[in-house]
Each structure stands twice: as structure tokens, then as C-alpha cells.
């Protein structure tokens, strides 16, 4: 489904990585590893199509990315909180769904927030939530936005023990349902199996 | 189209949660246009002559005041990145943001202009032409400004650069917008001025969202 070959990236004069290739099929996940500054985030941004690669190609279902299909079937959560501080978690979820053209009723959005442990916080402005709770609001999008490929950059940052386990469970469920995931993290991840890619 | 409306709704909701940001630009317009009659004193002939120019220049500057925030907040918190990756075309979302910017920063100026024009002893028909010219002109200011805001996104000291970049591009709107009111006061036909403003608006409505989108993609790289 997702095939990457000969990918190269440089920042300024410095070559970050070259000739990176991998393939992911249904139910598989990739753990991207590497020291700080090795280019993990750069690889993720190339992968989702935010920045162009120096060389190489990325194909989704055989089509070169970024295609509309790819954007619809992929979700990327990066370092940024990507939530509006002045809105409530519920408004954040529903508005980002509306921008993506995905139908999302209030019940489903509420259920996602409750699953992420934000019961009773759905009507508070995100501004007053803690860093970990903001992260949970963002992660709730994994439940409200249907996608096949999850690209999560340092998704386990700022999460407490319970949330790390919860996210691990979410990823495992997603993979069991035939999804795919590309993750970066410095910790060992609480998800079984998985290929490793060391930059 | 749904995505465009959703963006407009989102930006208006966000602005309502932070009213001060929108009100600053509107108050700026009110204060600047009111300072001139106070400073010059009761000289109806002179005031009437300078009114169109002053109202238009104040409208340009007040639009400029809101521009740096158009994309900066979304860029900072990463929501712009999510928009760029959304299945909805980024161009539509950007168009929605420009529409919201006009509704929040342009439309209030159009509605206030006839009231503020009274200070300059403009008569009812001149006020009508002024409002009409601003109705055609302010969306043009938002559209051109969005290109500048996208080009200077993430640049340090971008606010000053934005003014240097955008103000020269506002000159045609200023000339024909203020010109329409001056022509009307002089008893000439204003059709030509307004048609040119409308033509520029149509052109900008077509190209500006596209150019803004291209600039945003570069800024996000």
C-alpha cells in the first residue's frame, strides 16, 4: 500500500539521509528511530507531503503522493498541538472535521473525548488544559477522522503512563482493523510487532 | 464549498472569542478618520475635498493592521499544517479565511464609512458612492493583503515587510476608490471608476487565493 524508495533529504548543506526505502502493508507499522537531529521529523514531513524530497518517490496504492486519496486516507499528528486554544475540545474536533469535509456528530466527538480521558473537560477552553490534556485533544482526532495510515511524530510526548498505554491500545486496534502506522519515538513503544527503520 | 463555509465559521468563532483583535482595527479606522476634522478645524470646503482620500487611506491602513494575524496564529499552533494536509483543497480553505477576514475587518469599515463621512460634510449621494466604492474595494484589499501575509509568514519583522510589500499594491484601489467619490463631488460620471474597481476585484478573486496558497505551501516547507 505505502511504498517508499530512494528517499533523500538535506537541510542546507547537510545531507540528513539518503536512499531510505520501506514498504508497509495492511496491519503493519514502522518505528522510525534515530538520534536527535537525525532527520526523523524531516522524514515524516516528506512522507505526508509537507516538504518535497531531494530524490526518491513515495507511492500510496501505486499512485505517487500527495494525491487526494492519500490526503483522505492519511492522518498526520506532529509536534504542534494543532488545536485552537480559544475553542473547547469539542469545538476543536468538530471544526477540524468540518474543514476536512468529514461528517462528525456531537455524540461521536464526545465519545472520542471520553475515551481519551477528557470527560468533563469538553466545554472548557483548551487554553486552561495541561500540556498532556491538549495532546489528548489532538489524539482524539485519531478516533473521529477515519484514516488508514497514521503518521505520528513523537505522539507519546507529554503523555502520562495511562495515556501512553491508551495510545498503544488505539494503535494496536487500528492495526488489527487493517490500518497502518508510521511512528517516531525515543522510548520503546507499547505496540507489538512492527518494522524498525534507523536513520 | 462546504469546507469554505466551515473555514469562515471557524475564523469568525475564533474572532468572537478574541474580540479585542478585531475591534482594534475598527477603532483605528474610526480614530484616524476623526482626527483629521478635529485637527483641520471647521473648513467645510477643504474637508470635503480631502474626505475621500483620508477615508480610503485610513481603510488601507486599518486593513493592514489585521493582516499579519491572518495566517500567523494558525501557523504557530500547527493548524495551518493540518489545513495543508486536509483532503479539502487548501485553496478553498484559504479563500474561506480571506472571506472571514473581509467580514471581520472590511465589512465594518464599509458600514462605518457613511457615518464617519458626515464629519467631512459629504452629502447623502457622495456618502452612497463612498460606501459603494468601499464595498468593491475592501474585498480587494483583503485579497491582495492575503498574498502579502502568506509571503511574509514566519519572517522575522514580517509586519513591516508586509506593509512595504502590500501598500504599493493597494495604490490602484486607492486611486480608483477615492477617485470615484471625487468625481462624484465634481459632478462627473463615476461608472468608469467603479467598473475598474469591480474588474480588479474579479481578477483578484480569481488569482489571489491561488497565489496565497502557493506562498503558504512554500512557507510550510
Provide a brief overview of the structure.
The complex is a heterodimer of chains A (199) and B (221). Chain A is of the alpha/beta class and 199 residues long.
Largest sheet strand order of chain A: 6-7-8-3-9
Proportion of residues in extended strands of chain B: under 5%
Characterize the main sheet of chain A: 5 strands, parallel
Question: Which CATH class of the largest domain in chain A is shown?
Answer: Alpha Beta
How far is the N terminus from the C terminus of chain A? 22 Å
| Quaternary assembly | heterodimer
Radius of gyration of chain B: 18 Å
Shape estimate of chain B:
elongated
Give the topology string of chain B: H per helix, E per strand. HHHHHHHHH
Question: Looking at CATH, which topology of the largest domain in chain A would you report?
Answer: Rossmann fold
Number of helices of chain B: 9
Report low-confidence residues of chain B grouped into runs of 5 or more. none
The profile of the biggest β sheet of chain B is:
none
Counting DSSP E segments of at least 2 residues, the number of strands of chain B comes to 0
SS content category of chain A: alpha/beta
Order of helices and strands of chain A: EEEHEEHEHHHHEHEE
As a percent range, the share of helical residues of chain A equals 25-40%
Rg on CA atoms of chain A, Å: 17 Å
Beta strand % of chain A: 25-35%
CATH-defined superfamily of the largest domain in chain A? P-loop containing nucleotide triphosphate hydrolases
Amino acid at each position: 500500500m505505502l511504498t517508499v524508495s530512494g528517499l533523500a533529504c538535506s537541510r542546507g548543506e547537510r545531507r540528513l539521509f539518503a536512499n531510505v526505502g520501506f514498504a508497509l502493508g495492511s496491519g503493519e507499522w514502522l518505528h522510525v528511530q534515530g538520534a536527535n537531529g537525525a532527520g526523523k521529523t524531516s522524514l515524516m514531513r516528506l512522507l505526508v507531503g509537507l516538504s518535497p524530497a531531494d530524490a526518491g518517490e513515495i507511492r500510496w496504492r501505486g499512485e505517487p503522493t500527495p494525491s487526494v486519496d492519500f490526503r483522505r486516507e492519511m492522518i498526520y499528528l506532529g509536534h504542534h498541538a494543532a488545536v485552537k486554544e480559544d475553542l473547547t475540545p469539542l469545538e476543536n474536533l468538530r471544526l477540524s472535521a468540518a474543514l476536512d469535509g468529514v461528517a462528525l456528530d456531537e455524540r461521536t466527538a464526545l465519545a472520542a473525548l471520553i475515551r481519551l480521558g477528557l470527560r468533563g473537560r469538553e466545554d472548557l477552553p483548551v487554553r486552561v488544559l495541561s500540556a498532556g490534556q491538549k495532546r489528548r485533544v489532538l489524539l482524539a482526532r485519531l478516533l473521529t477522522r477515519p484514516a488508514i495510515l497514521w503518521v505520528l511524530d513523537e505522539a507519546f510526548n507529554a503523555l502520562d503512563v495511562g495515556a501512553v498505554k491508551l495510545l498503544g491500545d488505539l494503535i494496536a486496534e487500528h492495526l488489527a482493523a487493517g490500518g497502518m502506522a508510521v511512528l517516531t519515538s525515543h522510548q520503546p513503544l507499547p505496540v507489538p510487532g512492527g518494522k524498525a527503520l534507523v536513520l | 464549498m462546504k469546507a469554505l463555509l466551515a473555514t469562515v465559521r471557524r475564523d469568525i468563532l475564533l474572532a468572537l472569542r478574541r474580540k479585542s483583535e478585531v475591534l482594534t482595527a475598527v477603532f483605528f479606522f474610526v480614530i484616524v478618520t476623526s482626527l483629521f476634522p478635529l485637527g483641520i478645524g471647521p473648513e467645510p470646503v477643504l474637508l470635503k475635498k480631502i474626505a475621500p482620500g483620508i477615508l480610503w487611506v485610513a481603510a488601507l491602513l486599518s486593513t493592514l493592521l489585521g493582516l499579519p494575524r491572518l495566517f500567523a496564529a494558525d501557523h504557530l499552533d500547527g493548524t495551518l499544517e493540518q489545513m495543508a494536509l486536509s483532503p479539502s483543497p487548501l485553496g478553498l480553505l484559504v479563500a474561506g479565511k480571506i472571506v472571514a477576514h473581509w467580514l471581520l475587518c472590511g465589512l465594518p469599515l464599509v458600514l462605518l464609512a457613511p457615518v464617519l463621512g458626515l464629519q467631512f460634510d459629504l452629502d447623502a449621494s457622495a456618502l452612497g458612492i463612498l460606501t459603494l466604492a468601499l464595498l468593491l474595494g475592501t474585498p480587494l484589499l483583503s485579497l491582495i493583503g492575503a498574498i502579502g501575509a502568506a509571503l511574509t509568514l514566519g519572517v522575522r519583522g514580517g509586519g513591516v515587510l508586509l506593509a512595504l510589500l502590500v501598500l504599493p499594491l493597494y495604490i490602484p484601489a486607492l486611486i480608483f476608490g477615492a477617485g470615484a467619490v471625487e468625481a462624484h463631488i465634481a459632478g462627473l460620471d463615476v461608472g468608469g471608476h467603479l467598473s475598474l474597481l469591480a474588474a480588479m476585484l474579479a481578477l483578484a478573486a480569481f488569482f489571489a487565493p491561488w497565489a496565497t496558497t502557493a506562498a503558504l505551501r512554500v512557507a510550510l516547507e
